[in-house]
Design brief:
The protein is an alpha/beta fold. Helix content is about 45%, strand content about 5%. The chain has three domains: about 130 residues, Rossmann fold (3-Layer(aba) Sandwich); about 120 residues, Serine Threonine Protein Phosphatase 5, Tetratricopeptide repeat (Alpha Horseshoe), CATH 1.25.40; about 160 residues, Orthogonal Bundle (DNA Cyclobutane Dipyrimidine Photolyase, subunit A, domain 3). The chain is globular. The structure holds flavin-adenine dinucleotide (FAD). Flavin-adenine dinucleotide (FAD) binds next to helix 10, helix 12, helix 15 and helix 17.
Length: about 475
């Protein structure tokens, strides 16, 4: 029997449930990936991320070749046109079944449900799996039978419900029978998407696995302390790889166990904390599935819809350009513009600054992040932005507003991170680096807002909202 496997955000051969199950049942397998440029535009996917996907597909094609599975790259407009393309492929190559791993944002769910139902009606086998999470979204319930909207009880339940077999890995399949179909020229297609930061983000399953192992064995135990200091290389930087599925979260969790005496929620405090961050990622996947409104541009807390956001275009532009005159904020934005990635502490600082001090709609920031991050992920990005803007699940209360200057003093005490990304301030003494007295002297910028006054204005604006 011949089957089709449809790759999406699961660009790997190891621990890939759809691929493994497909290969167990089928003698011959063909793989497909849809290149949907206009859909990507709609989702604000960054240039760096598109290039990362395509470069990863080059690696995937090589791995699939070893299994005698050709990889076809099909260019098609958007998700709506995928149905017809898939159907054509199934008929053209006489495939009896379709396999894929699930995605949870609303457009993807809609697409998959339609394909599932229609293909079943035609008589095809359709098999889908959860590979981005350990507990399928919707499967963890509160005592009252509802969905979790707060992380800590979610995490408790996650551990309570965990069964050993959920952490079993799917092996790389054995080679299938050869089929007389050529793979697409992935390398050539990939070149069209090249971005200027490609060298910073090597691709490949083996590369990222050794990076995770290296991180856990050398820095894992320090993670809880180091993870908040952007000048320290203290976190794993695996987010782009997890989000494109080059490595599975399950593989990462099992690897963490190895370096923590086979324990997950106790033992080494650094590694335990790292695992809990991977669970934050899973939490936001449950949120986006259980509360689809959040991936439809709506806040989790409905009453915050009535907030009167500022329309100050100049402020927004200065924030986007990393020219707000608040060094730590500008350093964070510039890190992202130059590398496609931003340290988590900085993501919180710049997001709170935009949504609180500038009182600009968090959706502007969410979109801008997606346009520039190599790890831009609908669920985590939305979760992070809504948390920062106090409009989301488990949100920071609106009156808890991070002061960027205080954050800078605490987490970048020597101003190393600031100096790295703001060369204008390289000669600025440490005593002033967090808020220069005369910034123009260095060719830097006057702050666009007063931190204290803008904080007060934000608290008032939120306080005036009616919750009923
Ligand atoms: C405003 C805002 C926007 C964000 N946008 C994204 C995004 O688009 N894509 C994205 O992957 N993460 C996002 N995050 C979460 C977090 O900042 C990144 O996952 C993390 O910085 C990635 O670096 P790392 O791989 O070194 O993480 P590590 O600290 O090494 O953590 C390991 C993994 O755990 C997960 N993780 C860590 N922190 C979080 C978190 N707060 N929420 C969800 N998952 C987490 C990530 O998958 C990460 O790769 C955002 C956070 C905020 C506050």
């Amino acid at each position: 029997m011949r089957s089709l496997i449809w790759f999406r955000n699961d660009l790997r051969v190891d621990d890939n449930p759809a691929l493994s199950n497909c290969c167990v049942i089928s003698e011959e397998v063909i793989a497909v990936y849809f290149l949907t440029e206009s859909q990507w535009e709609q989702h604000n996917d960054s240039k760096a991320k598109k290039s990362f996907w395509l470069r990863s597909l080059v690696c995937l094609e090589k791995e699939l070749q070893k299994l005698n599975i050709p990889l076809l790259i099909i260019e098609t407009e958007n998700y709506d046109s995928i149905y017809a393309s898939l159907l054509k492929l199934m008929q053209q190559y006489d495939c009896k079944s379709l396999y894929f791993n699930n995605e949870y944002p609303v457009n993807e769910l809609k697409r998959d449900r339609y394909i599932y139902k229609s293909f079943k009606e035609i008589g095809f086998g359709v098999f889908n799996y959860h590979d981005q999470v350990i507990h399928p979204p919707g499967s963890l319930k509160t005592k009252a039978g509802g969905n979790f909207s707060v992380y800590s009880p979610f995490k408790r339940k996650w551990f309570e419900e965990l069964r050993e077999e959920q952490l079993a890995l799917f092996d790389i399949p054995s080679p299938k029978n050869k089929v007389n179909i050529e793979s697409s020229d992935v390398e050539k297609i990939s070149k069209k998407f090249a971005s200027k930061i490609d060298d910073l983000w090597p691709v490949g399953e083996e590369y990222i696995k050794s990076k995770v192992t290296d991180f856990l064995s050398t820095k894992g135990h320090l993670y809880k302390d180091d993870r908040n200091f952007p000048a320290i290389d203290g976190c794993s930087k695996i987010s782009p790889y997890l989000n494109s599925g080059i490595v599975s979260p399950k593989w990462c969790i099992l690897e963490a166990k190895k370096y923590n005496q086979n324990l997950l929620d106790e033992g080494d405090r650094g590694i335990v904390h790292w695992v809990s961050e991977i669970l934050w990622r899973e939490f936001y996947r449950h949120i986006i599935y259980n509360f689809p409104k959040v991936s439809m541009n709506r806040p989790f807390l409905d009453y915050t819809e009535n907030l009167e956001w500022s329309k100050n275009i100049e402020h927004l532009q200065r924030w986007k350009d990393g020219k707000t005159g608040i060094p730590i904020v500008d350093a964070g934005i510039r890190e992202m513009l130059n590398t496609g990635w931003m340290h988590n502490r900085l993501r919180m600082i710049v997001a709170m600054f935009l949504s609180k001090n500038l009182l600009i709609d968090w959706r502007e920031g969410e979109k801008f992040f997606m346009e520039h991050l190599i790890d831009g992920d609908i669920a985590s990005n939305n979760g992070g932005w809504q948390w920062s803007a106090s409009t989301g699940t488990d949100a920071a209360p609106y009156f808890r507003i991070m002061n960027p200057e205080t954050q800078s003093i605490k987490f970048d005490p020597q101003g190393e991170y600031i100096k790295k990304w703001i060369p204008e301030l390289s000669q600025c003494p440490i005593s002033e680096i967090h808020m220069p007295v005369d910034p123009l002297k260095y060719g830097y910028y006057q702050p666009i807002v007063d931190l204290k006054k803008s904080r007060k204005a934000a608290i008032e604006a939120f306080g005036n909202l009616r919750k009923d």
